[in-house]
Amino acid sequence: MDGEARVRDGAGLARRWAIDLGMLVAIGLLMGFLGPFASERAPIVGRYVYWMICMVGGGLIGVAADEALSARMSVTWRRVLAVSVLMTPAVAVLVLTTEHLLMGGRFDGTGFRRLLWQVWPILLAVMAVRALVWRRLPARVETRTVVAPPLPEAEAAFRRRLSARRRGARLIAVEAHDHYLKVHTDAGAELISLRFSDALEELARAHGWRVHRSWWVSAEAVEAVRWRRGVGEARLAGGLLAPVSRTYAPVLKDAGWF
């Protein structure tokens, strides 16, 4: 590991410990404010000092144990439970000593046994909060739909029906007019004699959608879609507007247009 990597690792470790310390200080201030286990009877300054020593000192004991066990016990919540159980006696001794020095409490086995059942749930809660703070969030995977251009043969049969001028033009939309179709391209529109159902069959492999009972649009030609008061409208290349019915709106919704 080079010097720069050591510096980065050292900075990351220092930041982690600083966050842990800040969390423990915040919990200590909260416990001083709440004053549980009859500590509210103590003078306010002494109460806050007592809880800061207990929570910061006891918490750091738990954090050190958690870091030491992390390599051997990868399951976070099992490790939290193990640390809270294993470190409770050591933290209870710290609390008993602090209580004796600041509040004149008895320093004996009875007080130690009493503290075990008070220290363990608090230590468990602190370690659980820390585990939540440092939990690994699921990796966010961004997906992007890449639309490949249609194969040349996908529109070949349909394009052969167009005039030579528009056969190679960009296909924008197909609009049904009785027994005729109005084919919109970037080289202009053209009327051809073909049933709409037959046109849809020939364009089945092309990249486009039926958006209305009488409209098929090329996906690459859609520039915007809006839906107002139950009526949809797609703006296509060249300023062409195509209606979008409720029946066929889901295909545009699935494509991400609204």
Describe what you observe in this structure.
By secondary structure, the chain is of the alpha+beta class. It has 2 domains: 3-133, no CATH class; 152-254, Beta Barrel (OB fold (Dihydrolipoamide Acetyltransferase, E2P)). It has 8 helices and 8 strands. The strands form 2 sheets. The protein has a 5-stranded antiparallel β-sheet with strand order 3-2-1-5-4. Strands 6-7-8 form a 3-stranded antiparallel β-sheet, with no helix packed on it. Helix 1 runs antiparallel to helix 2 and helix 2 runs antiparallel to helix 3. The protein is rod-shaped. It starts with a helix and ends with a helix.
Range of helix content: 40-55%
Task: Briefly note the structural class of the backbone.
Answer: alpha+beta
**Strands ordered across the widest β-sheet:** 3-2-1-5-4
General form: rod-shaped
What's the arrangement of secondary structure elements?
Blueprint: H1 3-34, H2 44-69, H3 76-103, H4 109-133, H5 156-159, H6 164-167, E1 171-177, E2 180-185, E3 188-193, H7 196-202, E4 208-212, E5 215-218, E6 222-228, E7 231-236, E8 241-244, H8 249-254
Antiparallel strand pairs: 1-2, 1-5, 2-3, 4-5, 6-7, 7-8
Helix pairs in contact: 1-2, 2-3, 3-4
Keywords:
alpha+beta, OB fold (Dihydrolipoamide Acetyltransferase, E2P), five-stranded antiparallel β-sheet, 51% helix
